[in-house]
Design a protein that fits this description.
- The protein has helices at 2-30, 35-47, 49-60, 64-89, 97-116, 124-145, 150-160, 163-169, 175-213, 217-229, 231-242, 246-271, 280-296, 309-330, 336-375, and strands at residues 92-93, 121-122, 276-277, 306-307.
- The protein is an all-alpha fold and 376 residues long.
- The strands form 2 sheets. It has a two-stranded antiparallel ribbon. The chain has a two-stranded antiparallel ribbon with strand order 2-3.
- Helix 1 runs antiparallel to helix 2 (35-47).
């Protein structure tokens, strides 16, 4: 029954998020909101809705490890698994100015979360600061989104534009227009109901499985729950990559990570009676890994704003390695020390050196181009 609850919960979360995104984006378009703003705000919030539902449900039920593990694990898998798979499908070229701002911001926000949790709890005051940061970020998205290039706006129009809805918006007094609006509102309500139900089923099922297997709530939150709630981001980014909408594939991941920390964790901390406790393992291992993963995104913007296939394969491989490490730690495996030595003594340093070489070459090419421009 517990496994069935997990499956039903995941299905309900995915369907609920899809209904919420579809209804909200089309309703926004019907009232004249541009598809670029819809993509940067409504869709990013919608794909983070499963994380929000699960984390808030976990906080109220006293399972704070699932709430924290869900956010941290989702952010790790969003970059390593989702960006990795998307880049394996097609190299991701990032032209959008907003995303280039979002990546450093993602690292700053992750550092702020680590600092807030250093005393072992993310308090209500900390949560309020994060929520205020989310509001400021959304305002910035709207302001900067209006200045984006025509090519980027066209890309979002193809992904989120709805000509039929916009046509109906020109006839607000018509029965067809009102009926269409009511239908979109119905989709939003149905999506929210499924999100609430799915979150409850997933948390209850995952907690029961964790207890039966002797696995901590944190491990379940970092793996099964985090992967499950990341399914909307996975679907959105992979489909965007297949359709050649590369800005959307990257922007969805980076924006979702920001929403997860600022919105999901922030609101969960505000709504929880005593804030959200943070376990020593999360503080000493999982949150630092989230920081490293966020920092790993920076070099790609110094190498032609490109995530190549080999970088995608690297990210995907690290997602597998991280999952293995989490379960080895949970099982107190005797091979854990050898695994850590392999990763931290060889694999990660080799990756860092490779990325630094790429950055060095990119900076050199940029200096050559600048010198040539100056001479002309």
């Amino acid at each position: 029954m517990s496994y069935a609850l997990i499956v039903f919960g995941l299905v309900a979360l995915v369907i609920g998020a899809e209904l919420l995104v579809r209804g909200a984006s089309r309703l926004a378009a019907a009232f004249g909101v541009s598809s670029l703003i819809v993509g940067l705000t409504v869709v990013a919030l919608g794909t983070s809705a499963p994380e929000f539902a699960v984390s808030v449900s976990s906080s109220f039920s006293g399972r704070s490890d699932i709430a924290v593990g869900n956010v941290v694990g989702s952010n790790i898998y969003n970059v390593l698994l989702i960006l990795g798979l998307s880049a394996l499908i097609i190299p991701l070229v990032v032209d959008q100015k907003l995303i280039r701002f979002d990546v450093p911001l993602m690292l700053v926000v992750s550092l702020a979360m680590w600092a807030m949790s250093y005393d072992g709890v993310i308090s209500r005051a900390d949560g309020l600061l994060l929520v205020l940061g989310l509001l400021a970020f959304m305002i910035w998205c709207i302001v900067l989104g209006r200045r984006e290039s025509t090519a980027v706006k066209h890309e979002y129009d193809e992904a989120f534009g709805d000509a039929d809805t916009i046509e109906n918006a020109d006839l607000p007094s018509s029965g067809a227009g009102r009926q269409n609006h009511l239908w979109q509102v119905g989709l939003i309500v149905a999506g929210l109901i499924l999100l609430v139900l799915g979150a409850g089923w997933l948390v209850d099922g995952a907690s029961a499985v964790a207890r039966s297997l002797g696995i901590s709530d944190l491990v379940i939150g970092l793996t099964i729950v985090a992967l499950g709630t990341s399914l909307p981001e996975l679907a959105t980014s992979v489909v965007a990559a297949l359709r050649g909408e590369r800005d959307i594939a990257v922007g969805n991941v980076v924006g979702s990570n920001l929403f997860n920390i600022l919105g999901v964790l922030g609101l969960s901390a505000v709504l929880a009676p005593n804030g959200i406790p943070v376990s020593p393992q999360a503080l000493e291992f999982d949150i630092p890994i989230m920081l490293i993963v966020a920092a790993a995104c920076l070099p790609m913007f110094f190498t032609g704003h490109l995530i190549s296939r080999w970088e995608g394969a690297l990210f995907f491989g690290y997602s597998i390695a991280y999952t293995v490490a989490v379960f080895m730690m949970a099982a107190n495996s005797s091979l854990l020390s050898e695994f850590r030595l392999l990763m931290f003594g060889f694999v990660i340093p080799l990756t860092a050196v490779t990325m630094l070489v790429g950055v060095w070459r990119a900076v050199g090419e940029w200096r050559v181009r600048r010198r040539g421009t100056t001479e002309k």
